[in-house]
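Q: Hi! First time doing this. I have a protein sequence and I read that you can turn it into a structure. Is that right? Here it is:
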Amino acid sequence: MDIQSGLKNRGMESADVEDRRKAVSELTETEFDAIASFPFEPSVAKPNIENMIGVVQIPLGFAGPVQVNGDHAQGPFLIPLATTEGALVASISRGMSVITAAGGANVKVFGDAMTRAPVFRVNGIGHASEVIDWVNSHPGELEMAVASTTSHGSLTQIEFYPNGRSLHMRLSFHTGDAMGMNMCTIAAEAICEVISRNTGAELVSVSGNMCTDKKPAAINIINGRGKTVVAEVMIPKDIVESKLHTSVPAFVETNTRKNLVGSAMAGSLGFNAHAANMVAALYLATGQDPAQVVEASNAMTVAEDVDGDLYVSVRMPSVEVGTVGGGTGLPAQSEALEMMGCRGSGKALKLAELVAVTVLAGEISTMGAQAAGHLGKAHSELGRSS
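A: Yes, that's right. Below is the predicted 3D structure, encoded as structure tokens:
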């Protein structure tokens, strides 16, 4: 009997977690001692996963404290990070100590909109123009369609991208404290039904890939998706030399030749050292969608010599986070959010600011190590098991 037939014969569709795990254990001849050990009722995770058999645990550490001078995040913070990469938490902590010694990082959210981009089939460019005109002249009907699906989100913008017999529309929504991808999808479907009924345009897909979700895309860098956040810090020369063991000119040159020139030559959409590292660890710790690390990696790190001191900034145009919904309600992830005062409603912008500052810290530490020629040494000492 093959595994699929074995699962079907055991009625796994309606089995509970323990029965399902036992069946999988027997069929694969695998003992699930660690996977079977977790401190919450399986029903808690029902909205988050299907065919649950247990939990895979990731080591959790913290970086900081880091001083943050944001509009929403203000004061010293400890940042929870879930990772299996040795040296990562230590490196981020080093960057945070530099930021704090310099008086803290300034951070602001410059944009806040989640997107969904349906694609319609039209009869030609004349029909596309007619559809665009109808949409532009009937905002109230589209807003009513959105309101029928959610009381937490609202339509903020529609951009049009006609291409022959295809018409792409990039819909932007305010989603409150939820990351909001599901909210946007449901609202977009309601909008598309109204458009199709009134214009004859035929919906092909509620996602025509101009959103752009979970894929690297220039449109997200230029127009933003989720939260667009910029973090900065001015580091005095003496702190660069004492804590990063390099010089301001060496740091600036390394960043320019690596993050800017090197990334451009490679055709990379991320002009940074390793933003995805910090984002992945923080997203896993706090119940965010880990696939959206892709968009968050579209970050640009800039370094300048300002009168002998070091100015470093990170622009993150697509930080897609929430403090309600998704995996944020799972017990461990909820506790990690609480560490930063980011659990529940009214905290999503605060979390976005902390994401950017965490990335800034990781970039400062890694670029400092590379400018000083110490990157390999750090990984050798901290990143290898004995």
